[in-house]
């Protein structure tokens, strides 16, 4: 059915509804007038039925005249939003502190992350990742801000942390990831880790976990009075061929290509 025919049928349906609503109102008014001419039980019955019909007819007319188009437009907008989200392969969205990293990493084999603020993430998940690498082959690629980079002060400001403290936290995080991996002797053969540093302003955390992309977005600068916005997270189906997965893939590769190696190890 083409759009013109659908539009014509929609108008016809609306016209019919208006006519029916007007007829119901007219009949109910006539019924109320008739009730005034009677007495006793008949009057009460006719008045009740007529009042009910008047309510139904009035609501029908109000809906068709004032609300139908608005509801239609809102539904069209809602469907459009849902279709856009489906095309973008959006899975989930919410406050960043609500995201369950351990759950997302539970079965991941290929873990690639660009970390805007590496210490909290590495402190929480590096041990579970290495534990999982004992049971199965896992490849980990972690990109962190450079502790000596010229742009790191801007990243520290983004998170509301003094520059010197933030640089020290990067070194601690990278050192912890390296030590946790190095100190495990029974990691599965073929598992690998690579830690590298980038010197650019990173306003989000990006993780590519097999078939899922996780993005935690922060505002582009620190809050007033030291308050920091933790940001929001969103997750997408990750495929290298489809947008936005292709964009995230390219973004990760660009950052990795310009990064300086801190530590790398492949278990044989």
Short descriptors:
single chain; 268 residues; alpha+beta; eight-stranded mixed sheet; 8 strands; 54% helix; 19% strand
Written description of the protein model:
The chain has helices spanning 3-36, 41-87, 101-105, 118-135, 152-158, 163-182, 245-257, and strands at residues 90-95, 110-114, 139-145, 192-198, 204-209, 212-217, 232-237, 260-266. Strands 1-7-6-5-2-3-4-8 form an eight-stranded mixed sheet, sandwiched between helices. It has 268 residues and is an alpha+beta fold. The chain starts with a helix and ends with a strand. Helix 1 (3-36) packs antiparallel against helix 2, helix 4 (118-135) runs parallel beside helix 6 and helix 5 (152-158) packs across helix 6.
Q: TL;DR?
A:
The chain has 268 residues and is an alpha+beta fold. Helices cover 54% and strands 19% of the residues. It has helices at residues 3-36, 41-87, 101-105, 118-135, 152-158, 163-182, 245-257, and strands at 90-95, 110-114, 139-145, 192-198, 204-209, 212-217, 232-237, 260-266.
